[in-house]
Amino acid sequence: MFPEAVAAMLPFYSERFANPSGSHRFAREARAAVDEARDLVAEVIGCTPGEVIFTSGGTEGDNTAILGTVARRSGTAVCPAAEHHAVLASVERVHGLQVPVMADGSVDLDALASILELTPEVTVVSVMAVNNEVGTVNDLAAVAAVVAEHAPQAVLHTDAVQAPCWVDLRTITPHVQLLSLSAHKFGGPKGVGVLVARQGATFDPLLIGGGQERERRSGTHNVAGIVALTEALRLTDAHRNSEVSRIAGLRDRLVDNVVAGLDGVHETVPRSRKVAGSAHLCIEGIESEALLFLLDEAEVCASAASACASGAMEPSHVLAAMGVPRERALGAVRLTLGRTTTETDVDRGAEVLVGAVDRLRRGKGSGRR
Amino acid sequence: MKVLVALSGGVDSSVAAAELISAGHEVVGITMRLWGGESDTGCCSVADVDDARRVAQQLGIDHLVFNFTEDFHTSVVDPYVQAHRDGVTPNPCIECNRHLKFHRLSERADLLGFDAVATGHHALIVEGDDTGSGERGVRYVARGADPAKDQSYVVHMLSQRELARTLFPIGHLTKAEVRRRAVALGLRTATKPDSQDVCFITDDGGRARFLGDRIEFRRAVVVDATDGTPLGETGALEMVTIGQRRGLGLPGGGPKRYVVGIDRESARVSVGGEDLLLRSQQGVGEVVWAHRAVAGELRVQCSAHGDAHPATLEHTADSGGADEVVVHWLQPQRVVAPGQSMVFYDSADRLVLGGGIAL
Asked: Which conformational region is residue A299 in: left (phi greater than 0), alpha (psi within -120 to 50 degrees), or beta?
């Protein structure tokens, strides 16, 4: 988290503890903090304050956008096959359809067009801004044009959870009716997020009761979380340009060093098609689970796909959707860079990774067992 | 030593980890995710993984989960289903030990720089001396200290190479002592019941539903073995096992009747008295040896908790190798259902010398 975001939330756990929905002076003080936060968030996102709904995070935003729209307007939903599970599971629940993706992980626009053409009952299309596993950026202007032409009755939702550090949200918002964010992906706390619902994007709320957030999301406001989210979003927006070029340089250095140090390394997505902070590689001749163990032992924290409820790594549905052969996907590794990453970090990361892969390949080839 | 301990989320492996730590080893806990489908318990459910992780946290060791679901499917579940299709009675727990715990996991541990893999099995690994049947300098699986919980039968397949890299830290303890130690350490698994049955089959629906979803059951007629009189019908030939007494839908009363023959071609199950099950010899295939092939007098155990009966082992001339043998029983024994594991113990009934699968 940004230290500024941590500092911003603390008063709301002590002297400014009141519930903003109350009517006394302390409540009004908390209310003012939420109102100011909403204004600032709207400015960074490029929407009006009334269009900002504070949520518990990305999953709630995705679920509300898809399930809520279908509940209100009936019909069904479609999404690309490489979406986050919060979207995939929602689309599955409303018996929706999955659209194929291209080899780089972006949505296949021609396939989207024909599926929308053949499925007139679609009321919501959900396409992620940036893929959480491989970092691919979708062209949401192009997606919006396809939706407008082939499914004018549908709204477009984007899971933009991975976007704020890398993409100016003001370039995304004009193309969509619904947009989901999660604070912990841009230096804010876990458990708080934003759902943007542009004017006219009506849906049935997932949470009902007290009528907070203009009846669109009931539940007492997480004031500390909202204030911290806002501070983190503000800082992310202010530093984005310089950070993106700095981190892209580090990412290139990391990947170049790994590729130079090892045979059989494949960059999953061309760098021109993805965000700066993502390095995703498929490494031949190793299993990512074993590699992650050795990296962790050397205090290099990486990931492969996504973990299931037991904590086991599941085979990546994203790589499968992209048509990456299973054999190659077994050696997937995902290294993420961010605000705190330094040149020393990436150099050590590359060195440890190359050493670990060498060791696994040698062990396997030696036939000791 | 650097030891990878397989934590199932049960009390035995929890205490095994604790024993290793107090012996001064560098210990990492690992839970294998084996089954992606529905499961009640036994290495597979999220609740068990939670227990394993909490025990590891309590003991202050790292805990990881390895996803071996594909291997489990290929080496255990698919063969289990195929065996039923073929009219064979499989032992999936033994195949899981053979292919997953002591092969896949052991290989992975080796690759990651561990010296040994430990499990919570009630069995021992001992070096032979010249006083018993064991040979000096050779490692054997031996019966665990608790006769009621001994699991040497299910880990009989370990080779010398595997035995050198495997630890059974609680094999010298009784189950009661294991539980006492778990209580003393305040482990949350101390009073957890023992796992039962096949881990990938849920209580709800059981074996019939699991297999029914994967095999098309054939109806079969049940006849009297002596005179061929039809006695009834069973809906699933693939669920019938030699030696089975219940679940054939025959009227009660009268002498006990067992399945003594299964004719898959004509879909006929013959039943008869226990005497019809008795055999003086039994063929065994796919035999593996702890060290090298043995013959002569020993004891043979045919189920996880059965007794080991005295027998003479003979290598048949026509089998062409040491992986097929004939067991000659000292006293006639019930026929062993094809597919069941048969484990050879020394005549003192202590050391595992080898084992195979009933033909």
From this structure: left
